[in-house]
Structure formats: C-alpha cells, structure tokens
Protein: folate gamma-glutamyl hydrolase
Organism: Podarcis muralis
Amino acid sequence: MLRGDMASWAGLGRALSACCLLGLFCSAALPFSLQGANEKAIINERPIIGILAQETDFKSFQKYGSSYIGASYVKFIESAGARVVPIRLNRSDEEYDKIFSSINGILYPGGSVSLETSEFARVAKIFYNKALEANDRGDYFPVWGTCLGHQLLSVLTCGEDLLTWTNTDGFALPLNFTPDAKNSGIFQDFPADLLQQMASEPLTSNFHFWSLSVQNFTNNEKLRNFYKILTTNVHNNVDFISTMEAHRYPVYGVQWHPEKNPYEWKNSTGIPHSKAAVKVTYYIADFLVSEARKSNHRFPNKSEETNALIYNFNPVFTGPFSSFDQAYFFD
Ligand SMILES: *[C@@H]1O[C@H](CO)[C@@H](O)[C@H](O)[C@H]1NC(C)=O
Ligand SMILES: *[C@@H]1O[C@H](CO)[C@@H](O)[C@H](O)[C@H]1NC(C)=O
Ligand SMILES: *[C@@H]1O[C@H](CO)[C@@H](O)[C@H](O)[C@H]1NC(C)=O
Ligand SMILES: *[C@@H]1O[C@H](CO)[C@@H](O)[C@H](O)[C@H]1NC(C)=O
C-alpha cells in the first residue's frame, strides 16, 4: 500500500464515523466493528479482560507455580482502561462458564506450549467456542490472540496446525498493510502518521519460530472464510500473516507482540522502545479495551469480582533469568 493511501483512508474513516454520529446514512463504507445488526449500543466503562494462563514449561519458572502470565500483558490491558482477571488452568467447566459470563473479553498470550495437547490450548478452545456462540446471539465478546495465541486462533478455526518454520526470533519489523487494513476494526482509530511509521519502520516485535504463511492460509477454506489478512511480513522467504481479524466476529490475531515495546527490557534488537513503538502498543490496547466496552458481562456481585481480579497476586521479578521482566504465577 502506498503511504499516501494510508493517510487518506484513516482520515476518511474518521470522517465517516463522525457523519454516522449525526445520523446520516453511510453504512456501506463503515469499519467492521461499527456494523453488525446484532450489536447493541452498550458502553461498559468498567471492562474486565481475562488473560489465559499457560503451563510453566521452562525450568526457571517451575518453582514459582505450575502456570504463569507475563506481567506485560496485564500492564498492556491496564494501560488503556480495563482490569484483568487471570484465567487459570485445570478448572471445571462450571467455573469457566461463570468466568465467561463475568468478563468482557479474553486474551491468549504468547509462549511456547503445544497448540494441540496443552491445557492452555484446551481452555482456549472452551472460551473460543463460547465466544462464537455468544456473538451469534448478539452477546458481544472479543477474543484476542498474540504470537502463540494468534497461532492458536488459526488452529481453533481450522482444526489443524498449518504453521511453517520461519525462525523469526528477535526481530523488529515494519508491517506490509493489505488493502483490507483500510476497513479493519484494529487499525481504524490509529493516527495516519503512526500507520505510515508502522509501514516504514521496524515497530513490531517478533519472537516466533513458526508462522502462518499466506500460502497455507489462502489454501485453507476455513481460515480464508473466517479471517481477513490485515498485514503480512516476509522472513526467511516465507510471506506470513502478522495481523488478522475475523470477517464476522470480534476475533483478532497478531503474530507480533504489542505488549513488549513499553514493558519488556530484555537486551534484544527485537524489542523497539521508540516513542512511535510505544504509541503502537497504546493504540492496540485502546482498540482491544474499546471492544471489551461493548460487552455487558459482569460478575454477580462485588465480592466475586474482587476475588477474581489479578490484584490478588503479586508479580515476581523474573528479568534476570527469563525473557519476561515480571510474571504472575498460579497454582
Ligand atoms: C493440571 O492437572 C494435571 C492432572 O492433575 C496435572 O498433571 C498438571 O500439572 C496440572 N497443570 C496445571 C498447569 O495446573
Ligand atoms: C504449509 O506450508 C508448508 C511450507 O510452507 C508446507 O510444507 C505444508 O505442506 C503446508 N501445509 C498445508 C496443509 O498446505
Ligand atoms: C546488549 O547486547 C549487545 C550485543 O550482544 C551488547 O553489545 C551490549 O553491550 C548489551 N547491552 C547491555 C546494556 O547489556
Ligand atoms: C455473590 O454471588 C455468589 C455467586 O452467585 C454468591 O455465592 C455469594 O453469596 C454472593 N455474595 C454476596 C456478598 O452477595
């Protein structure tokens, strides 16, 4: 996409949103997330987002607990005006039912467990299925996957692991925007100058050995019917999907790590800390939290909410021995 194009579509999107607020007829060109016959005009200003815990598969973490959440994911969500509930592993179906009806969205983080046999993948599937059913009933519920979480979304959607080895471990990259990015939910509120910087400067952090290639995606009917590709990257001769969102559901995946730029300080050129890089993080978090504000799920009462929040746990300073500066541990 040309840089000039990008600037003009972002401006156009804002102009169209404004005209709809005035009640003018302009639905054809509206961004996806403002459309949808089922969508109710709910604004929940106290959104709570679940973050799925993951098995502590590396040794240095095991003495702290059997599962963990990198604290950067928590800060990322908090930075844009939402609170966090950890979704722990090995809970009963009844407990997951209760959590689902209490939270306003879920984030599947990065990591390194199996996409098919881990408890992380099993619980992710439970929430993914509930989210699709809820959205079909008009009960808005966003699902976000980052890195491993993005790869997991592809497996949940098509039922198989189609990933390709790219060894993209520790690289900051600029994004190649597709024409679909211009009508996307994710990028609709990004400032035009920031989108231009994202297209030309390495502002996205990549730490993944595997990738979903454009070729495998395009050859798979289930994936292609479910998601649109918003950005791609090329690494080791593989054109892979770096950002995608579902056509008809609030389901979003990024192969890169928006949460790392302001919050992870491992000495790696793969984590950009520039002013523009930190803004990218903020606008992604703002998008996800804005999606969560459209959900009206809530805890049955204040004490249930209080007991579920991540504030009941203290993060451990794990920077000296892991790629996370801080992590929360469970069980
Ligand atoms: C989950 O339960 C299984 C079976 O009891 C156990 O082996 C495993 O360590 C547990 N995992 C976590 C992350 O709690
Ligand atoms: C996915 O891509 C890899 C290499 O790019 C290829 O070896 C594999 O066969 C593809 N899988 C499918 C199901 O197309
Ligand atoms: C970061 O890593 C580079 C390359 O390995 C090294 O030259 C540099 O001194 C390191 N910086 C810090 C602050 O540790
Ligand atoms: C809060 O709700 C839970 C579950 O419905 C219930 O068991 C509990 O007694 C309630 N607590 C208060 C203080 O109302």
Notes: Residues 1-38 have pLDDT under 50 and may be disordered. The longest strand covers residues 164-173. Residues 3-21 form the longest helix (19 residues). The two ends are 47 Å apart (CA to CA).
